Amino acid sequence: xxxxxxxxxxxxxxxxxxxxxxxxxxxxxxxxxxxxxxxxxxxxxxxxxxxxxxxxxxxxxxxxxxxxxxxxxxxxxxxxxxxxxxxxxxxxxx
Length: 94
Hints:
Elements: E1 2-6, E2 9-12, E3 17-22, E4 25-30, E5 33-42, E6 48-52, H1 68-84, E7 88-92
Parallel strand pairs: 6-7
Antiparallel strand pairs: 1-2, 2-3, 3-4, 4-5, 5-6
């Protein structure tokens, strides 16, 4: 279950938050760990957010690399947070 932190962010009862921090950035946080996610708005008719999948390779706030299992979990959490905010999250490649 999600609750709104403010107009730009949500918190999950599973212990993570997602907050838009700028026009082209969002932050995914689990406790002291953080991932800065490059995002871009888009879509025709449906509110969408495009995110750069490479951002989910390691925690930005440390040198810890995410395993594939952990990466899949974090990406799923991020996408669920976007869905709660009424956005469809789509990965884009560089």
